Amino acid sequence: MANTNLNVNAEAALSIIAAARAELDRLEALLAPPKGEHIDPKDPRNKDGRNLSARGVEVCYRLFDQGKTIYAVKEAMGISYGAAKYRHETWEKAGGASRTKQPLD
User: If 83 and its partner were Cys, which of 21, 68, 79, 102 is the partner (CB 3.0–4.6 Å)?
Assistant: First the structure.
């Protein structure tokens, strides 16, 4: 009888461990840098003075392609929320993630 309780407890523990591993894998995927190209949102070529350059607009679009939010793009690019929202709207009008990408350099 004690052996049966031990098997039940072991199965429960293994189930909890598997759930914890799955959750850790999910968190690791969220925190890991995105796969593919690296884009530097703070690159000085992204702005012409106070305004975004054509390159800066494309960087915004690529950040949206990666699934970044308006607020995340605002923070990454150092632009206002209104500017990031406008770029998000123009990104959507251009076709969103399926739009034709422009070269960065």
Answer: 79
